[in-house]
């Protein structure tokens, strides 16, 4: 037999698959609030200052800043959830992949472009904007009030248009200090400066962040071993914020649902809302009461409800809501009523059209 098969097992494919495996297992981020720099203000607290020292974002050195693209979606409980865009954020060793948020945004934009009716045009434009990936910056830093914990992460939105975001303020300081002395680098680990981050709540409850630099030039630490262990700390941003998720996961998220992994079926499923869960239970109870009594005594009344494997209190299942989300409407051509909770737009009755 000739040794010229036109199929092969390639190292490339094996490594690519392995990288995907690594990234999907990373989705089980262990939440530890100490991993995040605490810049929140407690109820009634008007202002606070946090003193930090920036670390190079990569363990190999370089800049302290890392930019990523994220989608954000307001949940039904009013809280925001953030999703790394797998299409626009380059992740080491992982190919960029399709993103349902980006698809929805692009399709809505195309519809808006073609639309002549101003109300409909605005409706599509809003969906396009709400689902567009936005820029966020991340830094890795040492919280001087909690050095023992080691590196913490801080993520803040980019203010590229207004140039008044946290990133801009830090870069401005870097430039101003370099103007005074061209050899001075405010971010230097050896002879740079700490940053003082001050968060203030205004009369309108809006928070503002001010950045100033410390008065004195200091090293990251006088203890070289400690400084090196901070710089080389292997904890990455995706361990803390969660990395890019699979298309299947995001397909559930884009509909405003919380994805949970169903081990039995080996796939992501949407977590049921309390109402949906109650409705499903009632439906099953009703179906069961119609059944001929099972004389074997082995009625399984939970057979068609699947649960999250780790926590039996989290029910999941197929989306049972009769309302369509913008994704279903625009991407799948559903004509059912729009889910107002997910897209707070389109005040005119009868939308979508
Ligand atoms: Zn995206």
Level of helix content?
25-40%
CATH superfamily of the domain at 34-85 and 133-241: Replication Fork Single-Stranded Dna Binding Protein
> Helical stretch count?
9
Structural class: alpha+beta
> What is the architecture of the domain at 34-85 and 133-241 at the second tier of CATH?
Alpha-Beta Complex
User: Could you describe the largest sheet, including whether it forms a barrel?
Assistant: 7 strands, antiparallel
Name the CATH class of the domain at 34-85 and 133-241: Alpha Beta
Low confidence ranges: 293-314, 318-322, 336-353
How many β strands by DSSP?
A: 11
What's the helix-strand series? Answer: HEEEHHEEHEEHHHEEHEEH
Report the portion of residues in β strands: 15-25%
Bound chemical compounds: zinc ion
Mean pLDDT: 80
Rg (CA only): 25 Å
What does this 3D model show about the protein?
With 353 residues, the chain is an alpha+beta fold. Among the domains are: 34-85 and 133-241, Alpha-Beta Complex (Replication Fork Single-Stranded DNA Binding Protein), CATH 3.90.198; 247-291 and 301-332, no CATH class. The protein has nine helices and eleven strands. The protein has helices at residues 11-25, 100-114, 118-130, 166-180, 224-231, 237-241, 247-253, 274-290, 326-332; strands at 47-55, 65-74, 80-84, 134-143, 152-157, 195-201, 207-213, 259-262, 267-270, 306-307, 315-316. Strands 1, 2, 3, 4, 5, 6 and 7 form a seven-stranded antiparallel beta sheet that branches. A two-stranded antiparallel ribbon has the order 8-9. Strands 10-11 form a two-stranded antiparallel sheet. A hairpin with a 5-residue loop joins strand 6 (195-201) and strand 7 (207-213). The radius of gyration is 25 Å and the shape is globular. The site of zinc ion has 8 residues, from helix 2.
